[in-house]
Amino acid sequence: MSDELRGPDDEALGRRLASELPRYTAPARLRVSIVDAADHPARRPVWLAPLIAAAATALALVLFLIPVLPRIEPADPVQQVVRAVVNEHSRALMWGARQPQILPAGLPWLTQETGIDLRRAFAGDDRLSLVAAEPVYLTRQRGLAVHYRDVDGHLVSYIMLPAERSFAMSERDRVQIDGRFKPMLKRDSGFVTWVWKQGDVACFLVSDMVSQDDLERFKDYFVRVRVATEPTIAY
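RESULT FIELD:
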C-alpha cells in the first residue's frame, strides 16, 4: 500500500503491533533447514569428471584402432577368392557391367585389358543369353568376367583369374558332373559357385541358384560354359 493511501489509523496500528507483539528467535535447526531447501547450482559428483574423461579416451582409442585392426578373412585361400568373386557378381547384379563388351567382337580389347585370352568362348544358347563381358580386378589380380542371364532371369557370372600357387583345390568340396568334370562347389552369402582350373586360369561360375532344383540346372550351365570356353594366360 502506498504512503498516500495509508491513513493515520494504519500507522498507529503498525506501531502498536511492533511494540506489543512478542518476538522469538528461530531455532538453529530451522535456519539450517531453510538454507538447505534453498535452490543451489547442481553439483556434479566428484567421481563423474574422471569417468567421463576415461570414457572419452577409450572411445578415441577405439576409433583410432578400427582402421588398422585385421579384417576377418576366410582361412582358405580359395574361399577368399570365391568371396571376392561373389562380391563382384553382386555388384554386376545390382548395377550391371562397368565396361560392357560383346563377344567375340570385344575380345582383342578384353585380352589387352585383362591378360586373359579366350581361344574359344561360350556366346550363349537357348538357355543362357550373353549379357556382357568386362575386365575385373579382384584379389589384386586382373581378370575377365562374362555375364549371362538364363530364361528364368538368373544372372550367371563366369569369372576368370590367373591361378596363384596358393590356389589349391581340395577334394572335399568337389562334385562329379557329367562324368567328365569334378569342380568344387562353394557357398557364400546366399550364392553358389562352381570353381575349377583350366591350365593356369582359375575359373568361377557364380549365381544365386541355391535350391536343389536350381542346383541341378546350375550343373547343366556349368557344362555348357565349360566345354565351349577355353581361357588361357595371354602373356
